[in-house]
Structures are given as structure tokens and as C-alpha cells.
């Protein structure tokens, strides 16, 4: 019986200590998400966590996407991707689209949410449907897709993925304020909006109150 007395307080302490891991920086929270086009956990994260959280708290978030996953770039210039050649193709298209949409994170999220929902246009159908849906010039996207030597998008993504993948070793990687942490990532994959809410509520300038665990 005595054990039961301890259950509630300990779970509350855990909940609040997790909640306090994430804080605002100058009133904002940077959220970097490492994705892979063929990854079902990435699909679930966008659908169940990121899109609803952005709808509530997007004004306070600085989003960054790294469509690289577990890609390996070989010395001979070829790529191996976790979900095969289609994954490589789609991840490259995602990098191109995000670059074209740079400075417009709402459109970037809309684009990625489109690609990561059925029928997964780029990954599943080698289609430019999401490119069209967000109003990107198809010729520009196609040119980027086919000319990786003319930009540094692959190298930039490869570099950006190193530390999150080393620390978290799961796709999607989810990193707050450039601090990769595996426990925080696992929490975020279950209750992102709650974590963001608690971080904002901790910062009186946000005006956000009344978070739920
Ligand atoms: C490039 O290198 C990788 C890894 O060593 C190998 O699997 C692949 O077959 C090579 N591809 C070409 C085109 O040489």
C-alpha cells in the first residue's frame, strides 16, 4: 500500500521536469526536425504533433527541416537512403523545395505536411503534386533536383544531420534550440504541444497560460 502513495508525486515530478527541459530563447523556440520521406514515424510526427502544435503556437516557433534522415553519401558521389532510391529522390526534392520556400516557414510546413501525408507524392509517386500545391515553380524545382552540383543543399543537410543523429539515433530527429537530447525528442514525439505550451507559459512575455500535461 505504501508504494501507491509515492506513485502520484513521482509521476508529477517527472512530468514537470520534462516540461521544464524546453525553454524560450528571446521569446521563441527553435525546432529542428530531421526527416526522411519514407519514414512512418516522421509521417506520424507531422500529422499528430507538429501540424497541430504549429496551429496553436506557430507564432512562437522557428522551424527548420533537415530532409536527410540516415542518408549516406559515398566517396563516389552516390547516395544510400534508409528507404531506398525513392527516399533519396524525394529527400532531395524536399531540400530543393524548402530552399525555394526559405523565409516562409508556414509554406515550408505546408509543403512538408503535404509530402508526408498519403499518397506521399514525391516518395510514393515520384510526383511534383506538393510542389504545385504550394505554388513553387516546377521548372525551378526540377532544375534544382537535377543539378545538385550547383548548390550546397546536400552538404548542408548532411552536416546539419550529424549531431542530432549521433545523439538521438532515431528518425525523425526533433531538436529544441540546437540542443539534441534523446529523452526530450521522445517526449516531443508524444506530446509536443504540451512541451511547447509549458515552455511558453514559463516565459511571461508569451502570454500563454493553462497548459495540460
Ligand atoms: C559507390 O560506392 C558505394 C559504397 O562503396 C557502392 O555501394 C556503390 O556501388 C558505388 N556506386 C558506383 C556507381 O560506383
Automatic annotation (TrEMBL):
One Pfam family from the record: GILT
Keyword Glycoprotein appears in the UniProt entry: yes
InterPro entries: Interferon-induced_GILT
Signal peptide (from-to): 1-24
Keywords from the UniProt entry: Glycoprotein, Signal
Family stated for the protein in its record: Belongs to the GILT family.
Protein name: GILT-like protein 1
Source species of the chain: Loxostege sticticalis (Beet webworm moth)
